[in-house]
Amino acid sequence: MWSMHVYEKLKIKFVVYKKKAKKVKIMGRKSDRGNIKRLDPPEEERRKYLRTVGGLVVGLAVGGVVGWLSKPAEVVEALGPTVTKTLTQTVTVPVTVPITITPTPVFKKGGTLQIGVEGDVKTLDPNKSTGFSSRVMANIHDSLFVRDVNGVPGVPAAALLFVKVSNSEWIVRLRDDAKWHCGDRFDAYTALESINWGLDPAHPAAEISLWPPVQEVKVVDDYTLRFLLKRPYSMFVSALSATWLSLGHLKCREKYGEDFGTKATCGTGAWMFNELKGIGEWVRGKYVKFARNPDYYGLALAEGGGAYKWGPPALDYIQFNIIPEAATIAAALHKGELEFHPRAPVTYVEDLKGDTNLNIVKKVQLRTLCIDVNSKKFPTTLKEFRFAVYYAIDTVKIVNTMLKYAGIPADNVLNAQAYGYVPMGFNEYNPDKAKELLRTINWDTIGKDIGYKIVLLYSIVRDPLNPELCEAVKGYLEAVGIKVELMGLEHAAYMAEGEVRPYEDRKYHLMLLGWSQFDADHVTGLRFHSSTRNYCAQTDADLDKLIEDQVATEDPEEQKKIFQRVQEILTKERCYTIPVYDAIWWYCWNKKVHNVKPIATEFQAMLYTDLWKD
Questions:
Q1: pLDDT higher than 50, residue 88
Q2: With contact defined as beta carbons under 8 Å apart, do 510 and 383 qualify?
Q3: Is the pLDDT of residue 522 over 70?
Q4: CA 507 – CA 146 distance, rounded (Å)
Q5: What distance in Å separates the CA atoms of residue 410 and residue 412, rounded to the nearest whole number?
Q6: Which end of the chain has fewer beta carbons closer than 10 Å to its terminal beta carbon, N or C?
Q7: Which of 314, 273, 270 is nearest to 290 (CA)?
Q8: Distance, CA of 208 to CA of 199 (rounded, Å)
Q9: 78: helix, coil or strand?
């Protein structure tokens, strides 16, 4: 569950409007893209702000920075500057904010860290990045918040604080000590330009379906944004704590055009890349190298959770080496050619453990692999057939034997560590029941026209042992009379196949799918609602309504009940997905590398900030 640890309280001033005050002209700032007007609310807006500020006391003290964790240590400074813009009246509000801690005082600066990544990097543009590209890009382009080593959201990055006015309105306070890599000031105006670029239908962000349902974002002051949503969305901060809403400087995007994301970037993160200025290097298909940002505001992930003030990176460079082959990765780690890999090959875990020059640590991930079932393509249109497939596969045995280093048997579409998880026990193996269900639907007759065959789609590189897992699934299904054609694709082609419309034109009946997840809505809402990617192709109005209600309610207990009901429908009632395993990653690094902290998500923002080498 998410939690908050309170360490210090500060005084922050928030502006309110007197109910009958005259209209006040607010001094604005001309941005690099022209005039952006500051908020000058009419009478009804002023009334709303009076109500809002009244809620700030509770919203900040209780909502504050959700999930901010930190081990006790010397307080060196508090995050969150005082807001002092005065109009007609100011109110002082007590606010709970996170504090920084003293880092390890002795470390060595300089050097290049050689990192392994098993999939290709296609782009460093935050608006176009997915998969492996997102994992690498996140080191350049900050999101507003990040997740800590335990996967808890709301840790400050480009933003410091958030205030929940309601599930439909959120206020985000940005940091005032960050710069864009080009040297420009980072503020609410330039952040808004980046957000609006991703929202623009002319060039929507690649992961726009994973964004909060943003209607409009407004500038409140130089470092404050107000988000107005299309519908209530209680998982707002969780959604902002991931790479799909990372920020890129619009001025540089326009300056570099098609080269933005391939030859040049401009973010606010700890690392920089701009080959056009001699910063970093990219050899396509082999490696991409980033340089330290000397002006970085200095946060790094803390070992126990949260973040702490470190300063600019200790290393001069980090280099991501693209190596898909497990044997090559293992050999490079042994030789010292790779010094760090967050997901060492599971088939070489014991081998790597035997190397006295290496550390190797297991970290259970907020990532679950399931087999989503296309409910609009015969014969998986039939609920009885879907359940026959479910009962025919011994997922627990598969995971505990061939995948014992890759994961833990799952019983639900939602990861056991994720917020909103409810045990489903949905991993029963019963081949006799599978055969009985096939007889019920007269499979011997209705399956004849398709040769008794269905298609299982999978990505050949996204998760370890995907081909072997699918071969095992094929064996179990053929044992009950269901033939299987395996369809392994390179990851981009695999993802494109999963989004084909209409649903019946998709070539697959079953899709092995890994999903990094953080809360119940991130899985059920962003994957199974009929308006999203919807790999299972469901169009049930009652399920859609529940998915919408689970983030609209203001009642936590009601939300838990809806979360549970949605998970029951997806698994035990309609079998739209078959859980396989919760992923394990093996962090492996050379012992000359220090400060490594394995994290529970694949999104590695801030992971390398405080690493250093002997």
A1: no
A2: no
A3: yes
A4: 36
A5: 6
A6: N
A7: 273
A8: 7
A9: strand
